[in-house]
Write a structure and sequence with these properties.
Radius of gyration: 23 Å
CATH topology of the largest domain: Rossmann fold
Structural class: alpha/beta
Strand content: 25-35%
CATH superfamily of the largest domain: Vaccinia Virus protein VP39
Strand order of the largest sheet: 17-16-15-18-19-21-20
Mean pLDDT: 95
Number of domains: 3
Shape: flat
Helix content: 10-25%
Length: 432
């Protein structure tokens, strides 16, 4: 098999080369490299392949910091210089806007980036007792596999969490229900760390003693989750953990539950909120809509600036948490929250929320297509859209630009997940 020249990266961080008109997607290869590869999926128009050997390395290639990189599915780009990762993500964003949305930003916003390591404050790890491996494995899934990576550390999680992996493996392996603990969710606040153990049958008395000993020795709190996320309850200590992260620039503390959705990178989130508020530019007395508001991450910062904010979110539990956060931060009078399914929103229901001078949209990966379609004559003059999926952002941008009278004033990437192919971005739309 002749070597191939890698031309670019795809949205999964794989090198893209071409052989006789067929696209070859090569995991671990970088643009500009000459490589040998081995295909594991062959289709008429493309192949998926693994890297065998780099014949001519890219200047952007670097040594991965994690000893489990390449096998663990948690990261895909540790072999690429961090600055180059940001440039690749910016190109992915622009390509999606151009090809899917048929729009181009009037201004490319400066990329937001920050700590490369130890940033991941939330993680859902698989657990599995494997007798031939000598105990319980805890980690991310292996690439292209349902197997749990045999890992004893993680470079993208905070050092104190990484240091917990080996003793936690040893403790879970000693439980009587060790084969009935399939998942460990990690939630790190500014002052507290919680481990949520998914259990498929009740603990035996001796199991409880083992977990209490572990929690005391490592200064963590343990929750047990017998069913869905809402069933998670504190086990030791037997009281709710005070989990929160701070937004010091806005004098805010955002409290959350161990299984609530939050941004995983707190340092980057602080910069993202600042950028979003600068772009949104809410004025005292403005009425601002925060769509998909979650815990109030953006809404409370908007309210702190003196604007009236209406937060909308599909989860009633998150809405209750957002309202509690508003009250705890002294913003209950200027922040109003509503539980409403924004994936099924219609123009009349959106209009019933009132007129918004400005709007912030921060949807999950599916985007906000029904919301942007529902914008009518009373649509806000400016929209700031925070996206975790450039493809759905581009799709929604097409609706805003081509049917709702907006122009894409600016767009840029936020490197919320270093060493992964995940592209977070922020875009600004202004009414013509």
């Amino acid at each position: 098999m002749q070597p191939l020249l890698v031309e670019s990266l795809d949205q999964e961080g794989r090198g893209v080369a071409r052989c006789e008109g067929k696209a070859i997607f090569i995991a671990g290869a970088l643009p500009g490299e000459s490589v040998e590869y081995s295909s594991y999926v062959r289709k008429p128009n493309f192949e998926f392949a693994t890297l065998i050997r780099v014949l001519k390395p890219s200047a952007q290639r670097c040594a991965p910091r994690c000893p489990f990189f390449g096998k663990c599915g948690g990261c895909s780009l540790q072999h690429m210089d961090a600055r180059a990762q940001v440039a690749v993500k910016q190109r992915v964003l622009e390509d999606n806007l151009r090809h899917i949305g048929k729009v181009e930003a009037e201004q490319i916003l400066p990329a937001i980036h920050g700590p490369q390591w130890g940033y991941r404050h939330r993680a859902r790890l698989s657990a599995r007792y494997v007798q031939k491996k000598g105990g319980t494995l805890i980690g991310f899934r292996e690439k292209r596999s349902s197997f749990v990576t045999d890992m004893t550390s993680c470079e993208i999680m905070p050092p104190h969490v990484s240091a917990l992996l080996k003793p936690l493996r040893d403790t879970l392996a000693r439980l009587s229900i060790r084969e009935r603990v399939p998942q460990v969710e990690v939630a790190v606040g500014d002052e507290t760390t919680v481990l949520v153990l998914r259990i498929l049958q009740p603990l035996a008395p001796q199991d409880g003693e083992l977990l209490r000993e572990f929690a005391g020795r490592h200064a963590v709190r343990i929750y047990l989750q017998p069913r869905g996320p809402d069933s998670a309850q504190p086990f030791c200590p037997a009281m709710d953990a005070d989990l929160y992260y701070a937004l010091p620039e806005f004098d805010l503390k955002i409290h959350f539950g161990p299984t609530d959705f939050t941004q995983i990178n707190y340092a980057m989130n602080r910069v993202l909120v600042r950028r979003a508020l600068t772009l949104l530019d809410p004025q005292p007395g403005d009425c601002v809509g925060d769509m998909f508001c979650g815990l109030g991450n953006f809404a409370l910062a908007i309210a702190r600036r003196g604007a009236l904010v209406v937060g909308v979110e599909g989860s009633a539990a998150l809405i209750a948490r957002a309202a509690a956060n508003a009250a705890a931060n002294g913003l209950g009078a200027t922040a109003d929250f509503h539980a409403l399914d924004l994936f099924k929103i219609e123009s009349a229901r959106l209009a019933a929320l009132g007129r918004f001078d400005r709007m912030l949209i921060d949807p999950p990966r599916d985007g906000a297509i029904e919301l942007v379609k529902a914008l009518g004559e009373r649509a806000p003059a400016r929209i700031v859209y925070v996206s975790c999926n450039p493809a759905t952002l581009a799709r929604d941008a097409a609706v805003l630009a081509h049917t709702r009278g907006y122009r894409l004033s600016g767009a840029g990437v936020v490197n919320m997940f270093p060493h992964t192919s995940h592209v977070e971005s922020i875009a600004v739309f202004d009414k013509d």
